[in-house]
Amino acid sequence: MNLLIVLALVGLMHAARTFDAGGAHATTLAFGFVLLAAFFAGRIFASLRLPKLTGYIATGIAVGPAVLGLLSPELIHDLEIVDGVAIAMIALTAGNELDLRAFRPLLRSIQWITLWAVIGTALLLGAAVFAMQGLLPFFDRLSLLPALAVALVMGVVMSAQSPAVVVALRDEMEADGPMSRTVLGVVVIADLVVILLFAATSSLAQSVIGAPGDFSDTLSLLTWEILGSLTSGVLVGAIIAAYLRFVGRNGALFVVTVCFVAAEVGSRLHFDPLLVALAAGVLIRNATRQGDVLQAQIELASLPVYVVFFAVAGAHIDLRLLASVALPATAIVAVRGIGLVLGSRIGAHLAGSPEVVKRWAGFGLLPQAGLALALAALFVKTFPEFGAEARALVLGVVALNELVAPAIYRWALVRSGEAGRREAAEAVAELVEEAQPAA
Amino acid sequence: MDVQAPQGPEVAIRLILVLVALLGLAYLGGLPAVQRLERRLRIAQLVTAGFPFVALGIVLGLPSVGILTESVLSTLSPLLGFGLGWIGFSAGFRLDVRELDDLPKGTARAVGFATALPFVLVVASVGLFLLVTSDWSRLDLSNPDFLRGALLLGTAGATTAPQAARLLGEAGREQRMLLRLEELAGMVGMAFIAAFFRPRGESIGWQLPDTAWLFLTVGLGGVLGVLACVVLQRATGPAESVLLLLGTVAFGAGFGSRLYLAPMVVCFVAGVFLSNVPGEHRRRLREALERLERPIYLLFLVAVGAMWNFGDWRGWALLPFFVVARLCGKWLAEKLIRKTTDLAPDGDHWMARRAPVGQLSIAIVVSALLLFPNGEIPILETAVIGGAVVTELLAQVFARNRTRARPSLALGVEP
Fold first, then answer.
1. Between B364 and B137, where is the model more confident?
2. How much is the ipTM here?
3. B78-409 belongs to CATH 1.20.1530
4. Between A2, A23, A269, which is nearest B12 by CB?
5. What angle do CA B97, B98, B99 make, to 5 degrees?
């Protein structure tokens, strides 16, 4: 039945497209179509024991310009309005789940895994890119030392993780436990680490090759972004907490509105919506009593936003570009995967983490999305001479990871026994709560 | 993360001010004391809750504030189409055709008077106004814009705010059904206008006779109703119900807009279908609608406010023509209803019952704005939004004066 509904929607969408070439009203139609088609495709994928999230992404690829062309590039651009809201909501969720008291026992694991898996993989990827110079024509213009520096920057860019995918999969699988918590902590911390590493390595590369980009500009941009984002995040968190505490009514609408305003205005101010919302979420969870209220409000409003966000991410995947960089991109995906899984195991071992963290946490670091793309855009600005060619490679790597990594992390959540544990824990808590008054 | 240069701190300050304004507005609206005051004053939806959001949209859209800039507004414009679909869907879902079986005698006549007379008077007066103020050198009698504008305002003027029935408390129960039928008449009028005043040209696909578009509107609404019925029955929880409802309404509104049909009429038909097909989906749908109806409507009003071009003096000049003609039509209708049926038991309250212009009227004119972007529609928008405020204030003043004069006629408290 799910398949029939998707086919009916595709048929209706195709009929609508025959009417005229475009028009300003097409965005509403595209939004509804993507929401329904991706939702039911997600269900089909779930019945095949694949993540719903992969179904949303696959829908985006199928209906996007690369395959059926039901969504034009202009329409996809219009739907990107959801991106900022989605990233902000996902980060708000992630931040709100970072209860620092509960995470304290995991801090040692998070530190060691971040060091070995994230920083180690960045170095490994740099080495891999340097070793693959023959497959990457833009390296022909660089001598040994600049090539090494640029390879290092690319390694940092491609080592980025995706808190968005990790949070979405954790919600979808109702997962809870030391492994999923450690992964969440690592990907959130890694977000900051990768941004800082990018600032350091790109400035180093610029000084080595004497690129026309302005080093101090890049550094000040990143400083402004990190500090400005965190400060405004604290303000946004205080406003949300005040609303939930003193008003409460229509909380979900207020949270979505704040996320929209923070994303729209934040991007104009060169703030990172992810960091803004992350700081807001951490503040609400750890400095106020509104954390649970916020979680309940987000749960009501988040599903439609997530579905469209991941479907639009899929629609962005350019299959022709992917084919043109298939060989180096596949090799880099493999190296990245090995680096993250091995690095995570070494880090967890050194930290004395539980067995479940040692075995499975590395797979949670594989998903990749927005940050890598954003850093790739910054890479183009920093190295205008060859940045665009390097960006194509990054896009290829992100596309492959978007398709493969969620399924792997889902498998890891199931095998680790943490999938479905949150639901069970909530059910036990409810039973205890019910039993208490009776007692 | 973006790579464009950062803007100054003034944008951040504005952002904080906007968030604080929203917080303040919500805080005030949520205060029990304010809610008690609203109930005591019996103030209906538009002025107390809706209009501040229109005003907020206006403020955010001002160039000096710079939050809802032109680029943001252009990105947000799909929200208008979606909001229209939402209003149509909600109105359709409220119309349970089984209730039509128990209607008292004379209902059809009463609805006919209550909609046809204001329609005729508004079309005549507004048509004359638009004809006089239009550019005579460009007058095209084969596709007269002034007639289209007059018919639109006539349709908007024919309906009454459903909140008017709440003002009457227990006495308003019978009237509520009449107001729903007025909404139905408004939808029919909008469907006709969208079908017979369509944009024309080579770039428009599907060259069909105008009447065919009318049938297509109803047919498309029916198809979407069936699809929505199948889709909504598969929801397994509140979050999925919300997603599927949002998706269905957006798909219906977008499909209708794409074909230059009125999105709210298409969604209205789908809503009526869903409301009258038995099944578990109706309970879930009602819950999801209750949860979302008001927030989406308020967001729609913010977008309406931000996009409202109220600078044209002709809109304000048109306002008294629209309000006076509409009130005359409603008053005349009330007289005729009382004379020919038993459906107007309390003549003292005709102003409260008939005067307020509701969200459907605003939706009709916004729908026209999307369908016919080039024309005199912005001045019609000014007349309707301004008219909504004026008529509600009039209704409040008249209702309260009557209550003071005759306490036995005290109005019921809004539920």
1. B364
2. 0.78
3. yes
4. A269
5. 90
